[in-house]
Design goal:
The protein is about 30% helix and about 15% strand. By secondary structure, the chain is of the alpha/beta class. It has a 4-stranded mixed beta sheet with strand order 1-2-4-3, covered by helices on one side. Strands 5-6 form a two-stranded antiparallel sheet. The protein is elongated, with a radius of gyration of 18 Å.
Length: about 110
């Protein structure tokens, strides 16, 4: 399998290149499965400074330092309007759930 077809193999190659001239390496892994995130973190443990997941919208409470010194958190959660539902205007989401009809997702306003 070519490195570009396998994100794990590609990451190994990129980390090696970065380590030659970079002291701090922060990896944002936008993966859905928790198993992918922790497997990736274990693979690069000791080679990068931190691995932080960013796919889900709710932060996890599993922040830790792995055995070789890499900081890890499965998911940092969402940044965006606090009074929203995963960044979308809360009224739009409520309408969707109440009517079971598709609705256009619109970003919530910061003050809303």
């Amino acid at each position: 399998m070519a490195p570009l077809e396998n994100p794990f193999a590609m990451a190994q190659s990129e980390v090696l290149k970065l380590r030659a001239h970079t002291k701090v390496i922060l990896v944002d892994i936008h993966a859905e499965a928790t198993s992918e995130k922790i497997a990736f973190a274990r693979m690069v443990d000791g080679q990068v400074s931190a691995v932080v997941g960013t796919h889900t919208h709710v932060p996890t409470a599993d922040t830790r330092i792995l055995t070789q010194g890499t900081a890890y958190q499965t998911d940092a959660g969402m940044t965006g309007p606090y009074q929203s539902v995963i960044g979308v205007d809360k009224q739009i989401i409520l309408e969707r759930f109440l009517t079971q009809m598709p609705v256009r997702m619109e970003a919530a306003r910061w003050g809303a």
